[in-house]
Amino acid sequence: MAPSLLTTTIIQSTVLNAVSNILAQLIDQYKRDKPFALNTPALLQFVTYGIIIVPINLAWQRWLEVTYPGFLFSSSSSTSTSTLPISSAPAASSITQPRPGSGPGPQPGETETELIELKEKLVRPPSNRWLPRWSSSSSSSGKRKRLFNFTMKFLLDQTAGGILNITMFVVLINLLKGASLGRACELVLEDFTPIMIARMKFRPIVSTLLYTVVPLDRRVVFGSACGVIWGVYLSLYAAV
């Protein structure tokens, strides 16, 4: 049985978070001119924080995509005609069969021309009313919709997403270090601004890639991969 998306994402993100924390320890000890010695408690604290945060971020990315779906550069032509209701057009073979109890050829009151016209009408492809609205001929409207959805996801990820992630980082990492909840909340006020400023130098590039080319089920892992450097910064900020 294949592992679930959540399990796979947690495993991959945990490995990347561990790598970023070890790199941070290497940098920190090199700057202090000390031989490298793994700080196991700090590593476990940062990895535990990552395991807790992954499901929350996965749910956040899903909510963004459900609320503002689609990619900025997706093409409406990607909709296949296979999505059209096949049952709307009867098979040609069923049209040519005579009705029960009737003989071959036209029925009374029906000419051969009328039968041909009826057959053409029945096998004619469905009209555009069966197509989804976003794939209609008004491509400019679809482009505006995709641009709006991208903009909303981008802005929400920079604002609400940033506030959520920074707050949880400061609270969780200090609770894991043994601080009280009250002290952890005080540290949010002290540490929020410098971390947010650092995040704004890095996250916009990641968000642009997330909402233009990265599939939904790979976004958290992609963010973790791009965030190895960010993880190093957070690990150093947490005073590994």
UniProtKB/TrEMBL annotation:
Residues 84-111 are annotated as: Disordered. Keywords: Membrane, Transmembrane, Transmembrane helix. It is a multi-pass membrane protein. The chain crosses the membrane at residues 40-60, 154-173, 220-239. It comes from the Eukaryota. Residues 84-100 have a biased composition (Low complexity). Belongs to the peroxisomal membrane protein PXMP2/4 family. This is Mpv17/PMP22 family protein.
